[in-house]
Amino acid sequence: MAAVAANFQTTARALETAFEAETGFDLVLAHGSTGRLYAQIINGAPFDLFLAADAARPEALKVGGAAVAQRTYAVGHLVLVARDGGAARPAELVRGNRVALANPDVAPYGAAAFEALAARGVMGKDFDPVLGDSVGQAATFLATGNADLAFLAASQLAMLEPGLTAFEMTGLHAPVRQDAVLLAQGDDNPAAHAFFDWLGSDQARTIIEASGYSVPE
Q1: Residues ≥6 apart with Cβ < 8 Å to 175
Q2: Which residues contact 8 (CB under 8 A, 6 or more apart)?
Q3: What are 115-129's pLDDT values in tens digits?
Q4: What domains does the chain contain, in order, with CATH numbers?
Q5: Tell me: the pLDDT tens digits for 13-43?
């Protein structure tokens, strides 16, 4: 079973389909925020693989002996999505509207959003975001009208309703490096080994790039 960060859920399904067709292995996916999944893993959740939205938690699992191999599988891109962006600048939009973002304590894209906001001088006592457990929940807040804007992964744009305005946050935050680990409890699982290795294949890289991510060289 693979634990997958919420921002990568749709892409992981596409990878699952291609991987199963090519190898004949079955892959089961579970998704959630990176922080929540990490907590479940260190508390004994039965995962064989962890596809996180950061590099720090996979590294901690590797150093602590809970993972046996680690690789960067994608680099994510943060965007600010507005229901009515017009010609306004992102900082102006944020100050006057309800902004949804993932909880930065458990979701790397939420931490990246806080970095971007600080870079634009928005972080202050008057800033009161609508926090979700993951970027998936932040997107739901936007879709249901509970937020006017949302900080999301660029990979989510294809799933949103037409007519929204997306602003790239490139250069305003550290790169969202997403690492995968083969967990120790999956070390004797041939399917887990096969998928971990397959993530670096040309086919997997093509699917990941087509979903709005960059891939490591």
Answers
A1: 75
A2: 31, 51, 53, 74, 155, 178
A3: 998 888 776 556 788
A4: 2-76+176-210 (3.40.190.10), 78-168 (3.40.190.10)
A5: 999 999 999 999 999 999 999 999 999 999 9
